[in-house]
Amino acid sequence: MQRSYLEQYGDGEERRTKVVRIIVRTVVAVVLATLLTSFLWYIFRNHHQEAVVRSFLASVRSGDFKTAYRTWGCAQEKPCSGYEFDKFLSDWSPQSNVASGPPDLQVLRLTDSESCRNGVLLTVTVNPNRVEKLWIDKRSDSMSYAPYPVCPHKNPYSIMLHRTIGKLRKPLL
Known about the structure:
Blueprint: H1 13-44, H2 47-62, H3 65-72, H4 85-92, E1 109-115, E2 119-127, E3 130-137, E4 143-145, H5 156-164
Antiparallel strand pairs: 1-2, 2-3, 3-4
Helix pairs in contact: 2-3
């Protein structure tokens, strides 16, 4: 016996809602995975350069200034031009003659990291009165004092992103 027109009404509705539910769940999962991946990339993108600075700070804390100078990208045998080992010691050793004082081993730490085009700008708190901006070249891992206080050529949105989401990175530093 053949069913009438109205008796067939709504037969495919249950199947359509299942398909729609699967599509919505897939789209939500893809969006969440993309957001999570982007967030993790943002959190860990400067990890290598931060590790270089942490190694440098560990050498300074332990008093191994030759290793710290090598991590800086120089060597006692072949000093960096304009930054000889004696100048390095006057900046980073406990007998530092910098006006703001020598490094305080309790305070000495990495406090911020900001990715620029070809390098990373890292902020190191040396003592309560002294904060240094360090620059690490992404290609060579060479370290120097930062040539500028903030990354040049950054758009306002990336600055805003660093000032908001960048605060979530602080415990990881």
